[in-house]
Structure formats: C-alpha cells, structure tokens
From TrEMBL, chain B:
One of its GO terms (molecular function) is kinase activity. Keywords: Kinase, Transferase. Component of the dihydroxyacetone kinase complex, which is responsible for the phosphoenolpyruvate (PEP)-dependent phosphorylation of dihydroxyacetone. DhaM serves as the phosphoryl donor. Is phosphorylated by phosphoenolpyruvate in an EI- and HPr-dependent reaction, and a phosphorelay system on histidine residues finally leads to phosphoryl transfer to DhaL and dihydroxyacetone. This is phosphoenolpyruvate--glycerone phosphotransferase.
Length: 214, 132
C-alpha cells in the first residue's frame, strides 16, 4: 500500500526528484504532442500539443536552477515559465495552478498539506478560466485527482482516476474556450486540456511510484 | 487645470498579429499620437495565439497614469490579458481594464473618447455600449 499524500509531499521536496519529474513531464508531453494536437484540431485550434511541448521544454531548460529552489519557489517559477511559454489559454491555466500551489505551500503561519494546497490552486484555476466542473476543461480532471489525493488513494489509482476523468469529458458539451463555439458538436471529443492534464498526472504518479523507496 | 493629465492608453490583443496591428493602425489614424497605443498579436513564434508576456509588454508600452483600456478577441486573449494585468502588480493593475466590446469598433470608439481626455471609466463605458 502506498500513501499518495504522504509520498507526494515528501518526495517532491527532493531536488533530484523534482528534476526527474520535470523530465518525466517533458517526455510525456513530447511523446503525446501529436495526439494532443489531433484532439485540439477536432474542437479547438489544433495547437495544444505544440503549445504544451514548448512550455515543458522551457521548464526543462531551467530544471537545474528550478530544482535548487525551495519547493514553493520552484513551483511558482515553473508556473511563470509555463505562462510565458505555453501561450493560448492553457498557459495561464497551468501557470495559475503551479503558481498558486507555490503560494499556498508558502502561506505563512499555516501548515498546509499537499491536497489542501492543490485544492486552493484548482479553485484559482477555476476563477481564472471562469469555469466549473462539467464545462469540459482540465478542471474535470483536476478535481477528481485532488479528491483521490485527499482520500489518500494509491498512486496507481490516482493515475487511473485521471485517465478515466479525461475520457469522461468526451460526453460533455464544452462551455468554455474555443470548443464552446461548437456547442453540441463538441460532444464526442475528449477535451485536449483534460487529456494533457491526465497524461501529466499519470506520468507524475508513475514516476513517484517507481522512485519510492522499496 | 494648467497641468495636463495624460490620456488613457489603448492596448489591442488578438490571436492574429495582422488583426492586432491593423486595428492599431486604424486607431492611430483616428487619434494620431494623442493616445498611448500598443498591440500584441499572436504567440511568441509569430503564429496565431496569445502571449501573456507580449501583452504585458504592450501594456507597459501604452502605460498611462490615467489607466489603460485593453481590447481582446477570443477567450485565450482575455485569460492571457488577465494574467498579464496581474503580473503588472499593484497598484498599476488596478488601472487597467479589459473592455467587453468588439475589438475594432471598441478600440476606435475608446480611443476617440480617450483622446478627449476622458477618464478610464468613461472610455470603458463608451466602448462597452457597443456590446449587446
């Protein structure tokens, strides 16, 4: 049995593991960039994969200096780098998630645990995008992942939850973003943002699982 | 009265560099140099998209103590503009407003209003009258 929450917060504090996580995320997005673009071509403007790859490569380029920072500062720096490099709507959304995580984990006088910091950060993403659960966005993956983390599900289960949650967005009608202009025609397609979010979550979970002490 | 207050600045944000620049050209033709004006269009690579860093630079370029009115096209432009405004930091971020108005008509009408020395609230309200 692995304890998702304890391990995530403990492991992330290790600079070497943060570098590994950055590389895992970069490689995952690079491998799936075409797929994400294809999803985005169906209901958006077709560049989600290239945008995400550009953002991850920019983070990767500064992985050593970022990993040397205390975790909250590292997360904020990564968030800012994503904002400045992903572009599109995904930049501010992913950027807000990480920047708020950093701020939450730094909040003075309070001992924030990882799941509650994530919850606050996800709420900030919802405010930024003015979206809600069920609008067919990355929030439809983030909320279930946060829930699984808060319930201390094993990492492999969290990864599966994320992948399942992304698939479920296919049934939704897009309410935000470019896809919302399509109305009912957006139904039947997995949301690209939800998909990149699930891919990253699963990759992070796998990496943490593998690098956990036996 | 004797100290002339600066006019409100105008920033145009579009996914397309051509639209952003073209709109800025129209605005310039209307109001000449009486209004600080800047645009940001496309992503950093020059392709279609929006870029928070570029928008931040545009707001800086069109900065006026009287405030800046920002005009955006589609959703990502708005989200990235909000991000850019936040990065501007307080107290200046309080002086920037994103207008709920069509980009071209809104920017032209707002610039005309701004060139007459109207405060930010009136510049924004005039542009937003264009929205149904």
């Amino acid at each position: 049995m692995s304890s998702g929450h304890g391990r995530v917060s403990g492991v992330l504090a290790e600079p070497v593991l943060l570098m590994g996580l950055i590389e895992t995320c970069r490689a995952t997005i690079a491998a799936n960039s075409e797929h994400l673009c294809a999803l985005d071509r169906a209901i958006g403007d077709g560049d989600h994969g290239t945008n995400m790859r550009r953002g991850c490569e920019a983070v990767s380029a500064e992985d050593a200096s970022v990993s040397a920072l205390p975790l909250p500062d590292a997360l904020e720096k990564i968030g800012l780098t994503l904002v400045m490099n992903i572009g599109g709507a995904a930049g501010p959304l992913y950027g807000t998630l990480l920047m708020e995580m950093g701020r939450e984990l730094r909040a003075p006088g309070e001992k924030r645990d990882f799941p509650s910091a994530l919850k606050q950060a996800i709420n900030a993403v919802a405010r930024r995008g003015r979206s809600h659960v069920g609008d067919k966005t990355l929030l439809d993956v983030l909320y279930p992942v946060q829930d699984a983390l808060a319930h201390r599900l094993p990492l492999t289960d969290i990864a599966r939850q994320a992948e399942l949650a992304a698939e479920l967005t296919a049934a939704m009608r897009a309410m935000r973003g470019r896809a919302s202009y399509l109305g009912d025609r957006s139904i039947g397609h997995v949301d690209p943002g939800a998909s990149s979010c699930a891919l990253l979550t699963a990759a992070i979970c796998r990496y943490l699982e593998e690098s956990a002490p036996a | 009265m004797n100290e002339k207050t600066p006019n409100v600045g105008i920033v145009i944000v579009s996914h397309s560099p051509l639209i952003a620049r073209g709109t800025a050209d129209m605005v310039r033709q209307m109001v000449g140099d009486s209004v600080p004006l800047a645009w940001s269009g496309g992503n950093r690579q020059g392709d279609l998209g929006t870029d928070a860093g570029g928008i931040l630079e545009a707001i800086e370029a069109a900065w006026s103590e009287a405030g800046v009115a920002v005009f955006v096209d589609l959703g990502g432009a708005e989200t990235n503009s909000e991000m850019a405004i936040e990065m501007l930091g307080l107290p200046r971020s309080k002086k920037v407003s994103i207008c709920n108005a069509p980009v071209v008509e809104g920017a032209v009408v707002a610039a005309a209003e701004a060139s007459g020395g109207a405060p930010l609230s009136r510049v924004v309200a005039t542009a937003e009258e264009l929205s149904p």
